[in-house]
Amino acid sequence: MNTEVVYLDEQALDDHMIRRAAEIIRADGTVVFPTETVYGLGANALSEKAVEAIFAAKGRPSDNPLIVHISHLDMLVYLIGEPLSDKARLLIQRFWPGPLTLIFKKSGKVPSSVTAGLDTVAVRMPDNPAALELIRASGLPIAAPSANISGKPSPTLPEHVVSDLQGRVDMILCSTKSRIGLESTVLDLSGSIPVILRPGGVTYEELAEVLGEVRIDKGLLDAHCTPKSPGMKYTHYAPDADMVIVKGSINSVQEKIQALAASKASEGLSVGVLASDETAGYYKNVNVLSLGSRKNYAVIASNVFEKLREFDIIGVDVIYAEAYDEQGMGLAVMNRMKKAAGFNMIEVQP
Predict the structure, then answer these.
(1) What values do phi and psi take at 63, rounded to 5?
(2) Which pLDDT band holds residue 11 (cuts at 50, 70, 90)?
(3) Within a domain: residue 235?
(4) Residue 236 lies in a domain
(5) How many CB atoms are located within 10 Å of the residue 97 CB?
(6) Which helix (H) or strand (E) holds 23?
(7) What SS3 class is residue 61?
(8) Residues 6 or more apart from 176 whose CB is under 8 A from it?
């Protein structure tokens, strides 16, 4: 497939290119586009043929539901099979456009391939000018998972999507680095109590402030529980190297990682360490990448996928990663890191 690669200035969008991309969407083609979370691989959410092209491009299992992206609430009314609840209205008013995906009972207009046969549909309104203009210009809701080969770290830079999907999609709209860098929070509103199925750019604490009672799916906290969201059961975000997370006090984590790295190096293996600004200078004779300061979890979140991909470029054999507190954005950071490591974690005592 011949992929058209276009570079956009989000401060002065090229209307011609947006219209060209919208034509591809209306013709059941595939377009990669930027969002504030990660880059998305989009197609007409109302077309079985277009949705099948998404799965084919990613190599994505068909029992993994897709998120439908909208630009106006009229699209939401078309997609859902229930009146908007008071809770939904509060969340939409507070967090849309933004990194929050809401799950509703679906209408009969949504193809089963989008929802993996479920009776619910996941919808969000992205907070990115290029994404919103593309949806508006196409006049269609756009189904879009992350624009990467299934299982690999999600793309936050244009070079990530070009590397993964050139030759697999019709068009790639390139822009700047994704502002948030982790996928949206997924909140299930189909039951009596809202449940977080995937932590992301909107935190548990922010949701609880608006809604009061909010639950977190047990499958996100316990590797032995099956997540309610079908897609979360798969290994995701994995770098090429084996990855191990080390949890404990900062000093004990540093000492453990350095000892593990020295052991691997003695076997002739190349070692990567995923550290923070506060600890990066401690490690010796290893490839060290920092996610940022532990005082700024938003920066750490924005760098997780980028640094995992950077280790792929370096070509390390094993990655040791420092753990983070699972509060606020830390819950989403650790969710992605645990999935990347296949829940391979060592806990060390002080």
Answers:
(1) -95, 20
(2) confident
(3) no
(4) no
(5) 19
(6) helix 15-26
(7) coil
(8) 10, 34
| Gap between the Cα atoms of 257 and 142, Å rounded | 43
Count of the separate structural domains present in the chain: 2
Q: Count other C-beta atoms under 10 Å from residue 155's C-beta.
A: 27
Please give the Cα distance from 299 to 293 (Å, whole number): 8
Contact 143/67 with Cβ under 8 angstroms?
yes
Q: How far apart are CA 230 and CA 63, in angstroms?
A: 7
The mean pLDDT of 141-164, rounded to a whole number, is 96
CATH code at position 255: 3.40.50.11030
Name which of 150, 119, 126 is nearest 54 in CA terms: 150
DSSP annotation of 57: H
In terms of domains, do 134 and 20 share one? yes
The Cα 265–Cα 330 span in angstroms is 30
What value does the mean pLDDT take over residues 126-150?
A: 97
Phi, psi of 142 (to 5 degrees): -115, 120
Closest CA to 129 of 68, 95, 175: 175
**Residues 226, 268 within the same domain:** no
Given a cut of 90, whether residue 58 has pLDDT beyond it is: yes
- Is residue 230 very low, low, confident or very high in pLDDT (cuts 50, 70, 90)? very low
Both structure tokens of 111: 């193809």
Q: How far is CA 303 from the centre of its chain?
A: 12
Averaged pLDDT, 106-114: 95
